[in-house]
Write a structure and sequence with these properties.
Layout lengths: L1 E8 L3 H21 L1 E9 L12 E2 L2 H5 L4 E6 L7 H10 L3 E4 L2 H18 L3 E2 L10 H7 L6 E7 L2 H13 L3 H10 L11 H4 L2 H15 L9 E2 L7 H9 L2 E11 L4 E12 L11 E8 L3 E8 L3 H16 L20 E2 L4 E11 L4 H11 L4 E8 L5 E12 H13 L3 E10 L2
Parallel strand pairs: 1-2, 1-4, 2-3, 4-5, 5-6, 8-10, 10-13, 10-17
Antiparallel strand pairs: 7-9, 7-11, 9-10, 11-12, 14-16, 14-17, 15-16
Helix pairs in contact: 1-11, 3-4, 4-9, 6-7, 12-13
């Protein structure tokens, strides 16, 4: 039986979850895995659950200098002081387990280098998908595949908001308010920017795609768009078209090594398995050369689901699974060359508010046609304002640049009030 003493840095929602899981599941972990876990220290500014005074400490040096501590959990969030604290612990020979997707997505090489130089380990399963074991699956179960695509719902807050809008007819503001009032569930923040503007999903996509495609893919190359402009009307129109709207993280790898990475609201048909993912749940649909399609589904946020992934990393580290787990490619091998596709192809939904008079629809169709974009369907809708009407266009798969050029010309044309919505479509 291995006795493993753990230090936790940060005692918010996730930190308290880790503490609870170790306390409540410690006996079965010891019995099943041969690892006796105990929390020796907690370093935090505040405590969301009662912690014995003898476990509370005030400096990271107390952790780094204690030879009994072998594994450190970082759940502070943010880039600093988290980055400095992690490197301090790594240099002291401690294994570090983190859920900090913001930090990891932007400082991966720096943290990996610190771990490698110290001869210790750095794990971060919980940084993507909460309790879903996605990173370990990619590295330890799907190695026989060249992963070709990722399409996932990897932000629970936005999925919760869009689910409320779709199922209960809420507008965005009301759904966001409800999500914020549900912070005790552990998936909504008081400041929603990271979630609703797509930053959180962008960080996760950077990590996941780097692991899946075996090359370092940074946030600088990810197109990002959030859900603030999604309206109840767009969701209603999507339903009429047999589709729903999700904030998707999408990664695709071509045979030539070209990568496209994007996070944005996306219409998908109800036949797509991701369409059934509701509330704060996450799901990731991946396509590999050998496995074909495989989907991972589960709680993407919350104290105990995320703690489940963190404690799993702790057990892996304690049992000596090795450093290789969290590398995106073998350090002894030259990384594959990568080019980025910023002019991807996909379908598109356009909602255009126009003056209600003859010839306007024909004018828009002509503009779209001159850009080489084919129209799948056109629907005219009463927008509720006298003398105005909504025209909904569903465009077939086309280059992003061609659709953007069409939108510019449409907005400049006489009789056009506004291109209200542009939502990409994936099958």
């Amino acid at each position: 039986m291995k006795d493993i003493k753990v230090a936790i840095m940060g005692m918010g929602t996730i930190g308290s979850g880790v503490y609870k899981v170790i306390e409540t599941e410690g006996a079965q972990i010891a019995r099943n895995e041969g690892v006796n876990l105990s929390v020796k220290y907690v370093l935090a500014k505040s405590y969301s659950i009662p912690i014995p005074d003898e476990k509370k400490i005030s400096t990271v040096e107390e952790i780094a200098n204690d030879p009994e501590i072998s594994i450190v959990v970082e759940v502070m969030g943010g880039k600093e002081p988290a980055c400095t604290f992690i490197k301090t612990c790594l240099k002291a020979g401690k294994t570090v387990v983190s859920a900090n997707k913001d930090l990891i997505s932007q400082k991966w090489e720096e943290l990996e280098s610190a771990a490698r130089e110290a001869g210790t380990n750095f794990y971060f399963e919980a940084s993507v998908g909460g309790g879903i074991p996605i990173l370990r699956a990619v590295n330890e179960c799907l190695q026989a595949n060249t992963m070709q695509s990722i399409m996932g719902i990897i932000n629970g807050t936005t999925n919760y908001i869009l689910s409320k809008m779709s199922e209960e007819g809420m507008d965005y503001a009301d759904a966001l308010k409800q999500a914020q009032e549900a912070q005790e569930l552990g998936f909504a923040e008081a400041n929603p920017t990271s979630d609703v503007d797509g930053f959180d999903a962008m960080y996760k996509l950077s990590i996941l795609s780097s692991m899946a495609f075996k090359r370092r893919l940074t946030i600088d190359h990810i197109y990002r768009e959030g859900i603030r402009d999604i309206t109840a009307k767009d969701i209603a129109y999507a339903k009429e078209l047999g589709m729903c709207i999700k904030l998707l993280a999408i990664g695709k790898l071509s045979d030539s090594g070209e990568v496209e990475l994007r996070v944005h609201p996306t219409m998908i048909p109800y036949s797509n398995p991701l369409a059934s993912v509701k509330g704060s749940f996450n799901a990731i649909l991946m396509h590999g050369s050998a496995i074909d399609d495989v989907m991972f589904y589960g709680r993407g946020a919350g104290d105990l689901p995320t703690a489940s992934a963190i404690v799993s990393d702790i057990i892996c580290a304690a049992k000596g699974s090795g450093y290789r787990y969290m590398r995106f490619f073998d350090n002894d091998v030259e990384p594959l060359p990568t080019t980025y596709n910023t002019d991807w192809e996909c379908g598109c939904y356009l909602r255009v508010k126009v003056v209600d008079k003859p010839g306007i629809m024909a004018k828009i169709c002509d503009i779209i046609g001159t850009k080489g974009v084919n129209i799948a369907s056109v629907i005219q809708k009463d927008c509720g304002s006298e003398g105005e009407t909504d025209v909904v266009f569903v465009l077939k798969e086309a280059r992003e640049s061609a659709v953007s050029e069409a939108i510019k010309e449409i907005e400049a044309a006489d009789g056009i009030i506004k291109v209200v919505s542009r939502i990409r479509i994936e099958e």
